[in-house]
Amino acid sequence: MEAQHGKLRFDRAHFKGFGASSLEFEAVYIVLSADFNIYMDVQQAINLQLVRAFAERDIKFALPTPTLHLNGGLQLEGDGDVGRSRTKKPASDEADARPSPVIVPVEAARAGAR
């Protein structure tokens, strides 16, 4: 990478540790220019080279899949039209626009009804 980009100097790389669902590596390159555009070009080149290297070796990564656990479930307030896509109406029709549904924990909805 350094030979391809004259404004870059490799400093160090380490296996830094274990994350909650990841292995953490740190690679440090010194960009020998104060130009932010050059910095971003170098960062992109490094990242794209890593992606190509992983693909060539058939290394795949699992995407994070967070799970949200709610006590008591959910209740929708509003018109319940969650699945339908809506386009923004012109300003003249703003008063006629229906409110979007709001997701509220069931316990909070019950507490508000008392």
What is the share of helical residues? 25-40%
Q: How would you classify the helix and strand content by structural class? A: alpha+beta
Distance between the termini: 66 Å
- Measured by DSSP, the beta-strand proportion falls in 15-25%
Strand order of the largest sheet: 1-2
Instruction: Please give the radius of gyration in angstroms.
Output: 25 Å
Largest sheet: 2 strands, antiparallel
Q: How many beta-strand runs?
A: 4
Overall mean confidence score, pLDDT: 74
Number of domains: 2
User: Uncertain spans, ≥5 residues at pLDDT below 50?
Assistant: none
Number of helices: 2
**Overall spatial form:** elongated
The helix/strand order is: EEHEEH
Write a short abstract of this structure.
This protein has 114 residues and is α+β, with helices and mostly antiparallel strands.
Structure description:
With 114 residues, the protein is α+β, with helices and mostly antiparallel strands. It folds into 2 domains: 8-56, no CATH class; 74-113, no CATH class. Helices cover 25% and strands 25% of the residues. It has 2 helices and 4 strands, in the order ββαββα. It has helices at 36-56, 106-113, and strands at residues 8-18, 23-31, 74-77, 102-105. The strands form 2 sheets. The protein has a two-stranded antiparallel ribbon. A two-stranded antiparallel ribbon has the order 3-4. A hairpin with a 4-residue loop joins strand 1 (8-18) and strand 2 (23-31). The longest helix has 21 residues, at 36-56. The chain is elongated, with a radius of gyration of 25 Å. The termini are far apart.
